[in-house]
Specification:
By secondary structure, the protein is α+β, with helices and mostly antiparallel strands. It folds into two domains: 137 residues, no CATH class; 185 residues, ph1033 like fold, CATH 3.10.590. The protein contains 14 helices and eight strands. A hairpin with a 4-residue loop joins strand 5 and strand 6. The longest helix has 58 residues. It is elongated and about 110 Å long.
Protein backbone atom coordinates (compact mmCIF):
# COMPACT_ATOMS: atom_id res chain seq x y z
CA UNK A 1 0.00 0.00 0.00
CA UNK A 2 2.83 2.43 0.82
CA UNK A 3 4.47 1.73 -2.55
CA UNK A 4 1.18 2.36 -4.37
CA UNK A 5 0.66 5.63 -2.48
CA UNK A 6 4.15 6.84 -3.40
CA UNK A 7 3.46 6.02 -7.05
CA UNK A 8 0.15 7.92 -7.01
CA UNK A 9 1.66 10.96 -5.30
CA UNK A 10 4.59 10.82 -7.72
CA UNK A 11 2.31 10.79 -10.77
CA UNK A 12 0.27 13.70 -9.36
CA UNK A 13 3.43 15.77 -8.69
CA UNK A 14 4.78 14.98 -12.17
CA UNK A 15 1.55 16.18 -13.79
CA UNK A 16 1.64 19.45 -11.84
CA UNK A 17 5.30 20.06 -12.79
CA UNK A 18 4.51 19.15 -16.41
CA UNK A 19 1.66 21.67 -16.40
CA UNK A 20 3.91 24.51 -15.22
CA UNK A 21 6.82 23.59 -17.49
CA UNK A 22 4.57 23.25 -20.55
CA UNK A 23 2.86 26.55 -19.86
CA UNK A 24 6.27 28.34 -19.64
CA UNK A 25 8.01 26.55 -22.54
CA UNK A 26 5.16 27.11 -24.95
CA UNK A 27 4.63 30.63 -23.62
CA UNK A 28 0.99 30.00 -22.86
CA UNK A 29 1.26 32.20 -19.74
CA UNK A 30 3.83 34.57 -18.36
CA UNK A 31 5.60 33.10 -15.33
CA UNK A 32 4.52 36.01 -13.11
CA UNK A 33 0.80 35.57 -13.82
CA UNK A 34 0.85 31.74 -14.06
CA UNK A 35 -0.46 31.02 -10.48
CA UNK A 36 -3.65 33.05 -11.07
CA UNK A 37 -4.99 31.12 -14.12
CA UNK A 38 -3.74 27.86 -12.58
CA UNK A 39 -5.82 28.29 -9.44
CA UNK A 40 -8.77 29.53 -11.51
CA UNK A 41 -8.62 26.38 -13.64
CA UNK A 42 -8.21 24.24 -10.52
CA UNK A 43 -11.31 25.82 -8.89
CA UNK A 44 -13.26 25.21 -12.09
CA UNK A 45 -12.28 21.54 -12.00
CA UNK A 46 -13.33 21.21 -8.35
CA UNK A 47 -16.69 22.94 -8.89
CA UNK A 48 -17.41 20.86 -11.99
CA UNK A 49 -16.48 17.65 -10.18
CA UNK A 50 -18.65 18.55 -7.16
CA UNK A 51 -21.72 19.44 -9.25
CA UNK A 52 -21.30 16.32 -11.39
CA UNK A 53 -20.93 14.07 -8.32
CA UNK A 54 -23.99 15.67 -6.67
CA UNK A 55 -26.15 15.18 -9.77
CA UNK A 56 -24.95 11.62 -10.30
CA UNK A 57 -25.59 10.77 -6.65
CA UNK A 58 -29.13 12.17 -6.77
CA UNK A 59 -29.83 10.33 -10.01
CA UNK A 60 -28.42 7.07 -8.59
CA UNK A 61 -30.44 7.35 -5.36
CA UNK A 62 -33.59 8.13 -7.33
CA UNK A 63 -33.13 5.12 -9.57
CA UNK A 64 -32.31 2.91 -6.57
CA UNK A 65 -35.43 4.07 -4.70
CA UNK A 66 -37.54 3.59 -7.82
CA UNK A 67 -36.26 0.03 -8.27
CA UNK A 68 -36.86 -0.64 -4.57
CA UNK A 69 -40.44 0.67 -4.71
CA UNK A 70 -41.16 -1.42 -7.80
CA UNK A 71 -39.87 -4.57 -6.09
CA UNK A 72 -41.85 -3.82 -2.91
CA UNK A 73 -44.99 -3.12 -4.94
CA UNK A 74 -44.59 -6.37 -6.87
CA UNK A 75 -44.05 -8.25 -3.61
CA UNK A 76 -47.13 -6.60 -2.09
CA UNK A 77 -49.31 -7.67 -5.01
CA UNK A 78 -47.96 -11.21 -4.76
CA UNK A 79 -48.56 -11.49 -0.98
CA UNK A 80 -51.97 -9.76 -1.04
CA UNK A 81 -53.10 -11.96 -3.91
CA UNK A 82 -51.95 -15.13 -2.14
CA UNK A 83 -53.62 -14.13 1.15
CA UNK A 84 -56.88 -13.23 -0.60
CA UNK A 85 -56.83 -16.47 -2.58
CA UNK A 86 -56.23 -18.56 0.55
CA UNK A 87 -59.03 -16.76 2.36
CA UNK A 88 -61.54 -17.36 -0.43
CA UNK A 89 -60.57 -21.02 -0.78
CA UNK A 90 -60.82 -21.68 2.97
CA UNK A 91 -64.44 -20.55 3.06
CA UNK A 92 -65.37 -21.86 -0.38
CA UNK A 93 -64.28 -25.39 0.62
CA UNK A 94 -66.04 -25.13 4.00
CA UNK A 95 -68.49 -27.98 3.34
CA UNK A 96 -65.72 -30.33 2.16
CA UNK A 97 -63.45 -29.67 5.12
CA UNK A 98 -63.02 -31.93 8.10
CA UNK A 99 -63.81 -30.38 11.48
CA UNK A 100 -60.13 -30.37 12.44
CA UNK A 101 -59.25 -28.49 9.25
CA UNK A 102 -61.98 -25.94 9.96
CA UNK A 103 -60.43 -25.22 13.34
CA UNK A 104 -56.98 -24.87 11.78
CA UNK A 105 -57.89 -22.53 8.93
CA UNK A 106 -57.92 -19.41 11.12
CA UNK A 107 -54.52 -20.35 12.48
CA UNK A 108 -53.18 -20.80 8.94
CA UNK A 109 -54.51 -17.39 7.95
CA UNK A 110 -52.98 -15.86 11.08
CA UNK A 111 -49.58 -17.42 10.36
CA UNK A 112 -49.62 -16.10 6.80
CA UNK A 113 -50.84 -12.70 8.01
CA UNK A 114 -47.98 -12.30 10.51
CA UNK A 115 -45.37 -13.96 8.31
CA UNK A 116 -45.84 -11.51 5.44
CA UNK A 117 -48.93 -9.32 5.38
CA UNK A 118 -48.38 -7.02 8.39
CA UNK A 119 -45.01 -5.81 7.05
CA UNK A 120 -46.81 -3.91 4.28
CA UNK A 121 -49.83 -2.60 6.19
CA UNK A 122 -49.93 0.79 7.90
CA UNK A 123 -51.67 1.30 11.27
CA UNK A 124 -55.01 2.24 9.71
CA UNK A 125 -54.94 -0.89 7.56
CA UNK A 126 -54.21 -3.09 10.61
CA UNK A 127 -57.13 -1.51 12.51
CA UNK A 128 -59.53 -2.08 9.62
CA UNK A 129 -58.32 -5.64 9.06
CA UNK A 130 -58.69 -6.48 12.79
CA UNK A 131 -62.26 -5.18 12.82
CA UNK A 132 -63.26 -7.32 9.83
CA UNK A 133 -61.48 -10.46 11.10
CA UNK A 134 -63.45 -10.17 14.36
CA UNK A 135 -66.69 -10.05 12.36
CA UNK A 136 -65.94 -13.14 10.26
CA UNK A 137 -68.68 -15.74 10.59
CA UNK A 138 -67.43 -19.26 11.37
CA UNK A 139 -69.67 -20.63 8.61
CA UNK A 140 -68.92 -20.94 4.92
CA UNK A 141 -68.56 -18.54 1.99
CA UNK A 142 -72.20 -17.32 1.75
CA UNK A 143 -72.00 -16.05 5.33
CA UNK A 144 -68.76 -14.19 4.68
CA UNK A 145 -69.09 -12.56 1.25
CA UNK A 146 -69.22 -9.07 2.74
CA UNK A 147 -66.32 -9.62 5.17
CA UNK A 148 -64.02 -11.14 2.54
CA UNK A 149 -64.81 -8.33 0.09
CA UNK A 150 -63.99 -5.78 2.80
CA UNK A 151 -60.60 -7.43 3.41
CA UNK A 152 -59.89 -7.41 -0.33
CA UNK A 153 -60.77 -3.70 -0.43
CA UNK A 154 -58.44 -2.98 2.51
CA UNK A 155 -55.54 -4.68 0.73
CA UNK A 156 -56.35 -2.97 -2.56
CA UNK A 157 -56.48 0.41 -0.83
CA UNK A 158 -53.08 -0.27 0.74
CA UNK A 159 -51.58 -0.82 -2.72
CA UNK A 160 -52.69 2.62 -3.90
CA UNK A 161 -51.76 4.56 -0.76
CA UNK A 162 -49.14 7.29 -1.17
CA UNK A 163 -45.77 5.80 -0.25
CA UNK A 164 -44.52 9.15 1.06
CA UNK A 165 -46.59 8.78 4.20
CA UNK A 166 -46.62 11.13 7.13
CA UNK A 167 -45.52 9.95 10.55
CA UNK A 168 -47.92 7.38 11.95
CA UNK A 169 -50.46 8.86 14.37
CA UNK A 170 -50.40 5.74 16.54
CA UNK A 171 -46.72 4.85 16.35
CA UNK A 172 -46.49 3.96 20.06
CA UNK A 173 -49.57 1.76 19.77
CA UNK A 174 -48.47 -0.37 16.80
CA UNK A 175 -47.50 -3.26 19.09
CA UNK A 176 -50.97 -3.17 20.64
CA UNK A 177 -52.58 -3.08 17.20
CA UNK A 178 -50.67 -6.19 16.17
CA UNK A 179 -51.61 -7.97 19.41
CA UNK A 180 -55.26 -7.09 18.80
CA UNK A 181 -55.02 -8.41 15.23
CA UNK A 182 -53.39 -11.61 16.51
CA UNK A 183 -56.23 -12.13 19.01
CA UNK A 184 -58.86 -11.50 16.32
CA UNK A 185 -58.00 -14.84 14.71
CA UNK A 186 -59.07 -16.74 17.85
CA UNK A 187 -62.18 -18.10 16.19
CA UNK A 188 -63.80 -21.51 16.23
CA UNK A 189 -66.14 -23.08 13.72
CA UNK A 190 -69.56 -23.38 15.38
CA UNK A 191 -70.22 -26.70 13.67
CA UNK A 192 -67.09 -28.29 15.13
CA UNK A 193 -67.93 -27.08 18.65
CA UNK A 194 -71.15 -29.08 18.78
CA UNK A 195 -70.39 -32.59 19.96
CA UNK A 196 -72.67 -35.51 20.83
CA UNK A 197 -72.45 -37.30 24.13
CA UNK A 198 -73.22 -40.99 24.66
CA UNK A 199 -76.95 -40.25 24.72
CA UNK A 200 -76.80 -38.44 21.39
CA UNK A 201 -77.44 -34.99 22.94
CA UNK A 202 -75.47 -32.09 21.49
CA UNK A 203 -73.24 -30.32 23.98
CA UNK A 204 -70.78 -27.42 23.77
CA UNK A 205 -67.23 -27.56 25.05
CA UNK A 206 -66.43 -25.48 28.16
CA UNK A 207 -64.03 -23.04 26.40
CA UNK A 208 -66.76 -22.23 23.87
CA UNK A 209 -68.95 -20.50 26.46
CA UNK A 210 -66.15 -18.09 27.21
CA UNK A 211 -65.77 -17.33 23.49
CA UNK A 212 -69.54 -16.95 23.06
CA UNK A 213 -69.60 -14.52 25.99
CA UNK A 214 -66.72 -12.68 24.32
CA UNK A 215 -64.76 -12.31 27.57
CA UNK A 216 -61.21 -11.00 27.69
CA UNK A 217 -59.20 -11.73 30.83
CA UNK A 218 -56.90 -9.00 32.14
CA UNK A 219 -54.01 -8.82 34.58
CA UNK A 220 -53.92 -5.56 36.59
CA UNK A 221 -51.04 -4.67 38.90
CA UNK A 222 -52.17 -2.74 42.00
CA UNK A 223 -50.10 0.41 42.65
CA UNK A 224 -50.44 0.44 46.44
CA UNK A 225 -52.65 -0.40 49.42
CA UNK A 226 -54.62 2.79 48.79
CA UNK A 227 -56.51 0.65 46.29
CA UNK A 228 -57.86 -1.58 49.10
CA UNK A 229 -58.76 1.48 51.19
CA UNK A 230 -60.90 2.69 48.29
CA UNK A 231 -62.61 -0.69 48.16
CA UNK A 232 -63.41 -0.40 51.85
CA UNK A 233 -65.23 2.88 51.30
CA UNK A 234 -67.21 1.32 48.45
CA UNK A 235 -65.25 2.79 45.53
CA UNK A 236 -64.89 -0.16 43.16
CA UNK A 237 -62.41 1.35 40.74
CA UNK A 238 -59.03 0.08 39.50
CA UNK A 239 -56.74 3.08 38.99
CA UNK A 240 -53.45 3.60 37.15
CA UNK A 241 -51.46 6.78 36.50
CA UNK A 242 -49.61 7.97 33.39
CA UNK A 243 -46.73 10.46 33.60
CA UNK A 244 -44.88 11.96 30.63
CA UNK A 245 -45.82 10.96 27.10
CA UNK A 246 -46.17 7.19 27.59
CA UNK A 247 -49.86 6.34 27.42
CA UNK A 248 -50.07 2.72 26.19
CA UNK A 249 -51.80 1.58 29.40
CA UNK A 250 -54.57 4.15 28.99
CA UNK A 251 -54.87 3.18 25.33
CA UNK A 252 -55.64 -0.39 26.42
CA UNK A 253 -58.28 0.76 28.89
CA UNK A 254 -59.91 3.10 26.37
CA UNK A 255 -59.82 0.86 23.30
CA UNK A 256 -59.58 -2.76 24.44
CA UNK A 257 -61.11 -3.24 27.91
CA UNK A 258 -64.86 -3.71 27.52
CA UNK A 259 -67.90 -4.29 29.68
CA UNK A 260 -68.16 -7.88 30.91
CA UNK A 261 -64.42 -8.58 30.82
CA UNK A 262 -62.76 -10.09 33.90
CA UNK A 263 -59.84 -8.32 35.61
CA UNK A 264 -57.61 -10.18 38.06
CA UNK A 265 -56.01 -7.77 40.57
CA UNK A 266 -52.38 -8.47 41.54
CA UNK A 267 -50.87 -7.35 44.85
CA UNK A 268 -47.11 -7.33 45.39
CA UNK A 269 -45.37 -8.72 48.46
CA UNK A 270 -46.07 -12.41 48.01
CA UNK A 271 -49.88 -12.15 47.88
CA UNK A 272 -50.29 -12.82 44.18
CA UNK A 273 -53.83 -12.17 42.90
CA UNK A 274 -56.28 -10.91 45.50
CA UNK A 275 -59.47 -10.46 43.49
CA UNK A 276 -61.47 -11.17 40.33
CA UNK A 277 -63.62 -8.29 39.06
CA UNK A 278 -66.20 -7.78 36.33
CA UNK A 279 -65.75 -4.66 34.17
CA UNK A 280 -68.75 -2.33 34.14
CA UNK A 281 -67.16 0.76 32.56
CA UNK A 282 -64.12 3.02 32.25
CA UNK A 283 -63.28 6.62 33.18
CA UNK A 284 -60.25 8.67 32.07
CA UNK A 285 -59.18 11.93 33.72
CA UNK A 286 -56.95 14.10 31.52
CA UNK A 287 -54.54 16.76 32.75
CA UNK A 288 -55.71 19.47 30.32
CA UNK A 289 -59.35 18.94 31.19
CA UNK A 290 -58.48 18.88 34.90
CA UNK A 291 -56.64 22.20 34.60
CA UNK A 292 -59.69 23.68 32.86
CA UNK A 293 -61.91 22.65 35.79
CA UNK A 294 -63.94 20.10 33.85
CA UNK A 295 -64.18 17.53 36.67
CA UNK A 296 -66.22 17.84 39.84
CA UNK A 297 -64.80 17.24 43.33
CA UNK A 298 -66.71 13.96 43.53
CA UNK A 299 -65.23 12.76 40.22
CA UNK A 300 -61.72 13.65 41.35
CA UNK A 301 -62.23 11.88 44.70
CA UNK A 302 -63.56 8.76 42.95
CA UNK A 303 -61.27 8.53 39.93
CA UNK A 304 -58.02 10.11 41.14
CA UNK A 305 -57.41 8.12 44.32
CA UNK A 306 -53.65 8.86 44.37
CA UNK A 307 -54.10 12.65 43.84
CA UNK A 308 -52.06 12.24 40.67
CA UNK A 309 -53.56 15.25 38.88
CA UNK A 310 -52.08 17.60 41.50
CA UNK A 311 -48.79 15.74 41.17
CA UNK A 312 -48.41 16.55 37.46
CA UNK A 313 -49.80 13.30 36.01
CA UNK A 314 -50.87 13.36 32.39
CA UNK A 315 -53.68 10.82 32.89
CA UNK A 316 -55.53 9.10 35.71
CA UNK A 317 -57.12 6.07 34.06
CA UNK A 318 -59.77 3.91 35.68
CA UNK A 319 -61.59 0.62 35.14
CA UNK A 320 -64.94 0.62 36.95
CA UNK A 321 -65.65 -2.87 38.30
CA UNK A 322 -67.84 -4.96 40.53
CA UNK A 323 -66.31 -7.78 42.60
CA UNK A 324 -66.85 -11.37 41.49
CA UNK A 325 -64.66 -12.90 44.21
CA UNK A 326 -61.74 -11.78 46.33
CA UNK A 327 -59.41 -12.85 49.10
CA UNK A 328 -57.00 -10.25 50.44
CA UNK A 329 -54.67 -12.94 51.75
CA UNK A 330 -53.94 -13.67 48.09
CA UNK A 331 -54.40 -16.79 45.99
CA UNK A 332 -50.92 -16.82 44.46
CA UNK A 333 -50.39 -16.87 40.69
CA UNK A 334 -49.77 -19.32 37.88
CA UNK A 335 -47.13 -17.12 36.24
CA UNK A 336 -45.49 -13.80 37.11
CA UNK A 337 -46.48 -10.69 35.15
CA UNK A 338 -44.57 -7.42 35.45
CA UNK A 339 -46.68 -5.04 33.37
CA UNK A 340 -49.31 -2.80 34.92
CA UNK A 341 -52.08 -4.10 32.64
CA UNK A 342 -52.08 -6.78 29.96
CA UNK A 343 -54.27 -9.46 28.42
CA UNK A 344 -54.06 -12.95 29.85
CA UNK A 345 -54.12 -15.01 26.67
CA UNK A 346 -52.96 -18.26 28.29
CA UNK A 347 -55.98 -20.39 29.37
CA UNK A 348 -53.91 -22.17 32.03
CA UNK A 349 -53.32 -18.81 33.80
CA UNK A 350 -56.90 -17.55 34.03
CA UNK A 351 -58.44 -21.02 34.52
CA UNK A 352 -56.11 -21.50 37.49
CA UNK A 353 -57.32 -18.25 39.04
CA UNK A 354 -60.99 -19.02 38.35
CA UNK A 355 -60.57 -22.37 40.12
CA UNK A 356 -58.79 -20.71 43.06
CA UNK A 357 -61.42 -18.00 43.51
CA UNK A 358 -64.33 -20.42 43.10
CA UNK A 359 -62.94 -22.62 45.87
CA UNK A 360 -62.25 -25.57 43.59
CA UNK A 361 -58.63 -25.34 44.72
CA UNK A 362 -58.72 -24.62 48.44
CA UNK A 363 -56.49 -22.23 50.33
CA UNK A 364 -54.55 -24.01 53.06
CA UNK A 365 -54.66 -20.90 55.28
CA UNK A 366 -58.40 -20.18 54.87
CA UNK A 367 -60.20 -23.29 53.52
CA UNK A 368 -63.70 -22.23 54.60
CA UNK A 369 -64.02 -18.74 53.14
CA UNK A 370 -61.70 -18.89 50.21
CA UNK A 371 -62.84 -16.53 47.47
CA UNK A 372 -65.64 -15.26 49.71
CA UNK A 373 -63.80 -12.69 51.78
CA UNK A 374 -65.15 -9.64 53.59
CA UNK A 375 -63.51 -6.24 53.58
CA UNK A 376 -63.60 -6.04 57.37
CA UNK A 377 -65.95 -6.86 60.24
CA UNK A 378 -68.37 -4.07 59.36
CA UNK A 379 -68.33 -3.88 55.58
CA UNK A 380 -69.27 -6.53 53.08
CA UNK A 381 -70.40 -6.51 49.48
CA UNK A 382 -72.64 -8.70 47.37
CA UNK A 383 -70.30 -10.72 45.16
CA UNK A 384 -71.22 -11.57 41.59
CA UNK A 385 -70.88 -15.31 42.11
CA UNK A 386 -73.41 -16.05 39.35
CA UNK A 387 -71.14 -14.43 36.77
CA UNK A 388 -68.17 -16.40 38.09
CA UNK A 389 -70.14 -19.64 37.85
CA UNK A 390 -71.34 -18.72 34.37
CA UNK A 391 -67.85 -18.29 32.95
CA UNK A 392 -66.61 -21.41 34.75
CA UNK A 393 -69.44 -23.47 33.25
Amino acid sequence: MKVKNFIHYGILAALVILFFVSAILFKVYEFEILPSPFFGALMGVFITAFVTAFLLRGQTEGETQKDRNIKIYQKQIQIYSRFSSKMWSFFYDNEKMKDSDKDDRYEKLRIMCFDELVFFLEDDGIKELTKVIKNINPGGLPDNYKNICQITNILQKSLHDDKKKKKQKCEKCRTELLIDLFDAFDQKDKNSLLKKDSAGIQTIDKPTLVKEMNITYWHFNMLGDKQIEEFKRGNWVLNLIEYGEEDWRTWKIEHQVKEGDVVFLFRRGGYGYIGAFKVTGTKILRAKEYENGKYTKDEIAEFDMYNAMDDGAMLSSNIIVMPIAYNYNGVGCYSVRRRTIEKMNAPESYNYLLDRFSGKIKNENDPENFGEGKLDNETSVELDKDYLQQIIN
